[in-house]
Design a protein that fits this description.
The protein is α/β, with parallel strands linked by helices. The protein is built from 16 helices and 16 strands. Strand 14 and strand 15 (458-465) form a beta hairpin. The termini are far apart. The structure holds 2-deoxy-6-O-sulfo-2-(sulfoamino)-alpha-D-glucopyranose and calcium ion.
């Protein structure tokens, strides 16, 4: 049956529902996710920083479709977030609470549900849930080992494991295009998951992008020199750019003018695995900039600011190849005409600090890491240029894809399909606040376990652990940078009580009994 575009625009789901289980009209799904890509570094979100390092291809998705301005994760860490996107469940429910846990590939995941409903499915890039996606239900897959390496990564396939010469982002794009063009069963609709390693630590751009942002000065966040007053857990973290980044491994600083030898490099493997030719080219591209740094002999505040600039130049440099890869996939969809019946999503496994509070990494419930970008296009069903302010969370991805495919969901799903939001109108019963629970402590960067709730205006957080029980409360309207913990402010008694009530309700609703009871 055919439905005129105008009707489909008003009622996006009518199309899917009417299409029925076997209709060829079921849309294809292209889910592109990068690792640690801050929304601040996507130009469609409009930050000053992103204007100096635009992402024109990622922005195409927002131009063709919609951008979500209030998109969140429930636990800002790679493994838990990936388990959530596959299952539609929060960390305590799917059980993968921190990196290093093992995902059970037999549990319900949406790609298998789509495969069983007749979709061709594949996944390429970073998996990071256990050794491989064997048993998940993908027709094809090729994944990076664990965290993945930027250069000449180990690639695991159903046929085994090998080192492949090349740059991880380009390999992931290439594998994806090969499958789209020649690998899939063309009689079926398809769902492909393209998971980039970039811009994850240790932030190594492709050789063609190493110099892309050298010499560019990025705007320093207003709270770069945060003193963490009134925020106990923030005083305990180890993710400060000027204190905790490794000068060799992360910042690629050399020991002296004229030398290519890196300063402290905790994990030399990232560089050692490059070929001699790659290493020589890398060193040559970095030499002048490092020589200038060594000659300047910086210290204190100047060195801290220099480190922020070098961090941004490298981090944003890795995103350039991701953006090119997104462009290549969009080009292929358009040239083949597949774009008209394909949902394309771009997101990240969580947000990231780009110098806010002096930080890199994520984990905290504070805005920059709790948020994650989410852009989606589906021509004829999402009006181009739509901006959606309703709060969504990564538990919503699984039910959304099922909805698009007209497949029934698993009872275990805790999220809600976002398709009703795609018109730009928010249903009155849509959630107003978002639940969060981070577990990994002890762990990298020493961020303490905490749970909390983020509402439209306020955020309530509780950090907990053997020697810590610290509550925080923020008025996001008055204090968007979350510098002023108002938990002891008598003027806040009423909203604090209301948010505590919501926290209790949300924990009950999601069945989270982990961590201390709220009261
Ligand atoms: C690695 C990183 C950490 C990062 C974790 C988790 N160190 O251990 O900085 O917090 O991954 O990241 S690295 O120098 O070895 O890359 S996550 O995205 O996988 O959750
Ligand atoms: Ca990540």
């Amino acid at each position: 049956m055919t439905i005129r575009i105008s009707l489909a625009l008003a009622l996006p789901l009518a199309f899917v529902a009417a299409a029925g289980a076997q209709s060829p009209a079921r849309p294809n799904i292209v889910f592109i996710m990068s690792d640690d890509h801050a929304y601040q570094a996507i130009s469609a979100y409009g930050s000053e920083l992103s204007k100096l390092a635009p992402t024109p291809n990622i922005d195409r998705i927002a131009k063709n479709g919609a951008i979500f301005t209030q998109s969140f994760v429930g636990n800002s860490l790679c493994g838990p977030s990936r388990a959530t996107l596959l299952t539609g469940r929060h960390s305590h429910a799917h059980g993968f609470r921190q990196n290093g846990n093992q995902f059970d590939n037999r549990v319900w995941v949406w790609p298998r549900a789509l495969s069983q409903a007749g979709y061709a499915t594949a996944m390429f890039g970073k998996w990071h849930l256990n050794y491989s996606p064997e048993g998940i239900g993908f027709d094809d897959w090729k994944v990076l080992d664990d965290q993945g390496e930027y250069y000449n990564p180990d690639i695991i396939t159903p046929r085994g494991r090998s080192i492949v010469e090349g740059y991880a982002t380009d390999l992931t794009t290439q594998y994806s295009l090969d499958w789209l063009k020649n690998g899939r069963d063309k009689s079926k609709p398809f769902a492909i998951l393209i998971h980039h390693k970039a811009p994850h630590r240790n932030f190594m751009p492709a050789l063609r992008h190493v110099q892309k942002y050298q010499g560019v000065t990025f705007p320093l966040p207003a709270n770069y020199f945060d003193d963490y007053a009134g925020r106990k857990a923030a005083t305990m973290q180890e993710m400060n750019i000027y204190r905790d980044m490794y000068e060799g491994h992360d910042l690629k600083m050399t020991v002296a003018k004229g030398s290519a030898q890196l300063r402290y490099n905790r994990w030399p493997g990232a560089f050692d695995r490059m070929t001699h030719a790659q290493q020589a080219e890398w060193d040559a591209l970095m030499q002048a900039d490092n020589d200038r740094m060594n000659a300047a002999n910086l210290s204190g505040r100047d060195l801290a600011i220099w480190k922020y600039q070098r961090y941004m130049q490298q981090y944003l440099g890795t995103i350039a190849a991701v953006d090119e890869g997104v462009g290549a996939v969009l080009d292929y969809l358009e040239e083949s005409g597949l774009d008209r019946n394909t949902v394309v999503v771009y997101t990240s496994d969580q947000g990231f600090y780009l110098g806010e509070h002096g930080w890199f990494d994520k984990r905290f419930i504070y805005e920059e890491s709790m948020r994650t970008p989410f852009l989606i296009q589906y021509p004829g069903h999402i009006r181009s240029g739509t901006r959606i302010a309703a709060p969504i969370q990564n538990i919503d991805y699984a039910p959304t894809f099922l909805d698009f495919a007209g497949v029934k969901g698993a009872k275990t799903i805790q999220g809600r399909s976002m398709t009703p939001l795609l018109t730009g109108r928010t249903p009155p019963d849509w959630r107003k606040d978002v639940y969060y629970h981070y577990y990994e402590f002890p762990g990298f960067h020493a961020v303490r376990a905490h749970y909390g709730v983020r509402g439209e205006r306020y955020k309530l957080v509780r950090f907990y652990g053997e020697d810590l029980d610290a509550w925080e409360f923020y008025d996001l309207k008055a204090d968007p940078n979350e510098m002023n913990n108002r938990i002891d402010d008598p003027a806040m008694t009423v909203p604090i009580a209301a948010m505590k009530k919501r926290l209790v309700e949300l924990r009950r609703e999601y069945g989270d009994t982990s961590g201390p009871a709220v009261r």
